[in-house]
Amino acid sequence: MKILTMKFGGTSVADIDRIRAVRDIISDEVKDGWNVVAVVSAMSKETNKLIDLAKQAGVESLVDPEYDSLISTGEDVSSSLLAIALNSIEISARSWRGWQLPVRTDSFHSNSKIEEIETIKLINSFKEGLKVGVVSGFQGIERAGRITTLGRGGSDTSAVAIAAAINAVRCDIYTDVSGIYTTDPRIKRNASKLKKISFEEMLEMASLGANVLQTRAVELAMRHKVPITVLNSFSKEEGTLVCDEEEIMEKNIVSGIAFQKNESQLTLTNVEDKPGVAAKIFGPLASSGVNIDMIVQSNTETGLTNITFSCPVDDLDVAKKAISKAKEDNQISYERLIDNKNLAKVSIVGIGMKTHAGVAQKMFETLSEENININVISTSEIKLSVLIERKYLELAVRSLHDAFGLQNL
Ligand code: ADP
Ligand code: ASP
Ligand code: MG
């Protein structure tokens, strides 16, 4: 049995016309002899509407099971509509909710992790002649039987996890752009489409803000060696293959630029410079669920130090509360707590950076020519990130894109 997993995002199933277009894309694959597992997102903007309704109704916590039970329903509408559309052209299809397969997850509501997926019902149905199993993405069920969701953009992860569990030959992710570009094509019109990108680079790009694929989906694909192709449901074009580094002949020094728009930083001044202080600061932040990103410590000669860290703007208030409480409880001491909410992070990513020197210098020179000040820097083997003022974000992305010649890849 030849099984193919296909995922269609929100804009690809935004209305009945779009659902018919998706139906036809699937129908072509069925005609080529494939059994298809089609994973769908909610129709465009539906999840946002549901989140807004939950807030209006007074939801207090995102880890509330009722919140997941509500925000997962968008996917139920699109999966049933797609199954109806397929059946209407004599392609046998049926829909499954996440809990019906089931997709088993942990119970961390609103950001659950998949633990196991049962595929037996899909396989048996294919054996009995079903051509397309349509699965609501984004959803799972936890041990106590409550519905869970996989975090924003989680249908990508549903699709890759099902592809791995069912041993699908490939996983095609259909979206509203024609593949992975050197940067978000909505910011830089002449961004180049990459033919291939390594799992490693895509993982960095996704975690650094390129939300074309959910980070966890890339992690799973890398672990289970599921080749992902990112394609456009609006136009028939060759997409981008996300694959092992060995399959890429021409390795770019820099393959892409990713960015996160809403970053903030917090500085604690005149912290005592002695062993254990960092643990006392970052412990309470971790327990409060704050997503710490970059950290800088600058020592002075007086035995005191300044510690700066960055986190998403949405986490800043929680971070400030956790730090102030640690001071009140005499766990830490500092003079001032200074925040800056107007930051953004820009990152350049490329496997070629492992072997080429001078990339950092070129990045810093380019930003300095545009008079863009760098607040914090962080690096890994294949990426370099800087925190800058948000108002310079687009300028930084565009000038770095030009400086590294990414329009000509
Ligand atoms: P879907 O609803 O299909 O899951 P998303 O909105 O989650 O779609 O992801 C697609 C979007 O990702 C594109 O519209 C594009 O603006 C954005 N994006 C960000 N970075 C990139 C990139 N490097 N290449 C392609 N798209 C990108
Ligand atoms: N509908 C969910 C969201 O908007 C999941 C997804 O689209 O992948 O985040
Ligand atoms: Mg998405």
Features of the shown structure:
single chain, 409 residues, alpha/beta, 8-stranded mixed sheet, 6-stranded antiparallel sheet, 12 helices, globular, binds adenosine-5'-diphosphate, binds aspartic acid
Report the helical percentage.
Answer: 25-40%
Question: What is the overall pLDDT average?
Answer: 95
Helix/strand-derived category reads alpha/beta
Write down the overall geometry: globular
* Total beta strand runs: 18
- Whole-angstrom Rg: 23 Å
Give the percentage of residues in beta strands: 25-35%
Please report the distance between the alpha carbons of the first and last residues. Answer: 38 Å
Structure commentary:
- This protein is of the alpha/beta class.
- 33% of the residues lie in helices and 26% in strands.
- It has helices spanning 16-31, 46-56, 65-71, 73-88, 120-127, 155-165, 199-207, 215-224, 277-287, 316-328, 359-369, 393-403; strands spanning 3-8, 35-40, 93-96, 103-105, 114-117, 132-136, 139-141, 147-149, 170-175, 196-198, 228-232, 240-243, 256-272, 295-299, 304-312, 337-349, 376-380, 383-389.
- The strands form four sheets. It has an eight-stranded mixed sheet, sandwiched between helices. A six-stranded antiparallel sheet has the order 14-15-13-16-18-17.
- It binds adenosine-5'-diphosphate, aspartic acid and magnesium ion.
